[in-house]
Amino acid sequence: MQDNQKPIVSSSADFQREIAELLIECLNLDVTADQIIPDAPLYDKGLGLDSIDVLEVALVVSKRYGLQLRADSTDNQHIFSSLRSLADYIATERTL
Amino acid sequence: MITPSLPLVAHVSPDSIIAWRAAGAVTLRQFLAEVGQLAARFPAGSHLLNMCSDRYRFSVGLAAAIVAGKVSLLPPAHTPEVVRQMKVFAPDVFCLTDRDLDTEDLPQLKYPVMGVGQPDEFAIPQIAAGQRIAVLFTSGSTGIPQPHPKTWRALVGSVQAGALRLGLLHNHPCTLIGTVPPQHMYGLESTVLMAWQSGNALSQAQPFYPADICRALAAVPTPRVLVSSPVHLRALLDAGLALPEIARVVSATAPLSAQLAQDVEARCNAPLMEIYGSTETGMIATRNPTQGAEWQLLPGIKLVAEGDCMRACGGHVETPIAMNDIIEPLTAERFLLHGRMSDLVNIAGKRHSLASLNHLLNALPGVVDGAFYMPDEAGHDHVTRLAACVVAPGMAAADLLAALREHIDPVFLPRPLLFVDELPRNRTGKLPRAALQALLQTHRTRKTYE
Question: I need a surface site. Which of A23, B100, B293, B354 has the fewest CB within 10 A?
C-alpha cells in the first residue's frame, strides 16, 4: 500500500545544518556540520555510515520529527543517499 | 550399505504452509516445485554464493543447492575482497542473486521468475546425513576467512534441539519473522532451517526499521515468532509503535541486558528466549533472561575446560570447538557468560578478530604502523564502535578507510581514525591497551575544547 504522494519539500540550508548536527550528535561522528557536504553520499565512501547508524538515526528522527522510516518504501536508498535528500525527506514527511 | 538420511523438511502434507510471501502462503508442494525449477537452472559449479536478500528466495536457493548436491558458501560479508576470497576457496563458485549486482567477478544466476507449478510428483527429498550443505566463514586471525563446513546431520541436530527448547514443535503451526539475515549462522538456523525442521513457516521479509518489523509481523497470521537481535529489539521498543500480537521473541548475537529483556517481554507480551552459539558450533544453549542469567546447554552438548578457554563438544557439535567467550560452568548443563575473549570484537552481532583487523590495517600500502582499539562498552544494548590509531604519513583518512572497506564489513571501520606520529609502544614493542586508550582520550578531549 503506497502512502499518498506528498509534494517534496526542499530543505533549507538551515534545516540541512540541523540534520547534520543531529547526525553528528547521534552517531558521535568525528566531523563538524560544515564538513558534511549536502550532496556527498552518507553511506560508504562519503560519511561512511552503515546500517546500524541508519537505524540509530531513524529512531532519533522518528521521535524528533514524528515520522516512521520504512525500508520497503521504494526510495529508502535514496533517502539516505545524501544529507540533502535526508533533509528533504524529513521536511516532507515531518508531523512535528 | 544404507546411508542414513534426513528429510529436507519436517512438513508432511503437500498443502502445509512453508512460507509467507507478499503474495500469500507458499505450500510445501509449490516450494518443492520451485526448488526443482531452480536446481534445473544451476550451472555446473559445485559451490554457490547465495546472496538473495528475500528470505524466501534464499531458502529456495539453499534447498535447490542441497537437492542438487551443491555447497552453499556463507561468508560474513560480501565485500569485494571477500568475494575474491570465495573464488580462491572454490574456483567453481557461482552466485545466486535477486538484485542487479554491478560489480561481481563471479558467474551470476539471477533468481528466475518461477513458472506456474505443474502438478509434479510430490516427494519430500531425503538428504544424506553426512552431505556437506554449507561452508560458513569467520574472519580468522590472519585476514583469510576461516571455513567451517556443515553437514546436514549437524545442522538438523542443532535446529531440532533449538526448536524443541523454543516450544515450536506443536500442532499449531507458527510463522517465523526474522530481522537478521539468513546468510549468517544465527539467521540461517533460526529463520530458515528451524522453520523447515519444525514444520513451521518462514516470512519472506527482511524488516529493518521498527515500522518494517511491525508490518512484517502484521502481514502473517498468528502465532508469530519474532527472531531478532538486541540492536533491532531496542530500536523496536524505542520507536514506541503499537506492536502486533507476538507469541514468542527470540534473540541472539549478543546477550540482552536484564532491563531490555524485561522490557521486551512486557511490551511484546510474549516470552523471550535467548540463544547462545557461534558460527563454528551453531546454537548450543538457551536461556530466558527474565528468569535468570544462567544458560542451559542443548541436549548432548558439553563444555570442557582446556587451558584458558572452554570447548564445546557432543550433540551436533561434530568436532570440539573452543568458544570465544569467557564461560563459567555452574553444573554439567548450566553456565554463565562473562563477556568475550579480548581478541574478539562483536559489533551488532558481527564478529571479527582484533588481531586480524590489526593485520589488515598494517598490510595496507602507506601504513607504517597501526592498531585498532575497542573501547569498553558504554551500555549493554548500545553499539560501541572501534577506534584506531595509525602512523601513515601523507595518507588521507578517506583513502585509508576506502582501502579497509575493500576487506572488512563497514561496522568494523574505525571511528575515530586518529593519525599520529608514532604509537605508544613500550620497549619490547608491545602496545599496552592503557597507552592506546590514553592516546585516544587525549584526542577526544582536544576535540571537545577546540
Answer: B100
Beta-carbon contacts of residue B77 (< 8 Å; ≥ 6 apart): B350, B408, B409
The answer to whether residues B89 and B61 belong to one domain is yes
**Residue in B39, B86, B27 with CA at minimum distance from that of residue B66:** B39
Domain encompassing residue B85: 5-340
CA distances from residue B260 to B59, B193, B229, B267 in whole angstroms, order as listed:
31, 27, 11, 10
pLDDT tens column, B368-411: 889 999 887 665 567 788 999 999 999 998 899 989 988 888 88
Best A59, A61, A89 member to test B by mutation, with max B CBs in 10 Å, is A59
CATH superfamily of A13-93: ACP-like (1.10.1200.10)
B324: Cα separation from own chain's centroid = 15
**Nearest residue of B to residue A66, measured between CA atoms:** B239
Domain-wise residue ranges, chain A = 13-93
- Listed range (A85-89, B220-224, B310-314, B356-360) with the worst mean pLDDT: B356-360
Cβ–Cβ < 8 Å for A70, B211: yes
Does B15 share its domain with B115?
Answer: yes
Q: How far apart are CA B70 and CA B39, in angstroms?
A: 10
The residues pairing with B337 across neighbouring beta strands, listed in sequence order, are B327
A14 touches chain B (CB under 8 A): no
Do B323 and B361 fall within a single domain? no
Summary mean pLDDT of chain B: 90
Please tell me whether residues B351 and B302 are part of one structural domain. no
State phi, psi for B417 to the nearest 5 degrees. -110, 115
Residues of chain B contacting A, Cβ within 8 Å: 207-212, 215, 231-232, 235, 238-239, 241, 347-348, 383, 385, 398, 401-402, 405, 409-411, 413, 415-417, 447
| B contacts of A68 (beta carbons < 8 Å) | 209-211, 239, 241
CA atoms within 13 A on the CB side of B212: 24
Number of structural domains in chain B: 2
SS3 at position B436: helix
Q: Are residues B351 and B278 part of one domain?
A: no
Out of B300, B325, B340, pick the residue that ends a domain: B340
Whose cell is 514468542? That residue is: B248
The verdict on a CB contact (< 8 Å) between A59 and B239 is yes
B207 and B335 fall within a common domain: yes
* CB neighbours of residue A15 within 10 Å: 17
3-state secondary structure of B73: strand
Q: Out of B215, B231, B402, whose CB is closest to A55?
A: B231
Residues B352, B336, single domain; the answer is no
Distance CA B295, CA A67 (A): 39
